[in-house]
Amino acid sequence: MNLEEYKIELLSDFEELINFYTGKDKMDDFLHNHLQDCEESHYCKTFCVRLKANNTIVAIFALAFDSVDIDSDDFDDMRMGAAGTDLPAVKETFREQ
Fold it and tell me: The pTM is what?
């Protein structure tokens, strides 16, 4: 792999993702049905990695317009390993119904 063979750019047309698959059904569903909604709601900005030779998308990533604020007590617990190991409660769909 030579990094010179790739380019990174903003994804401007979400229709280009129609033929992009990760092999994980839930991730593919999110990419094909919800990622554009997240970007249009200003939650993130989506980028793609393309092969320069044929412009094929080989990777996708998004940068979130958000941060996680942790108070000092929780941060100390997390650093010491005392924080819980439960997964965070995350909504599956970001669209308003």
Answer: 0.67
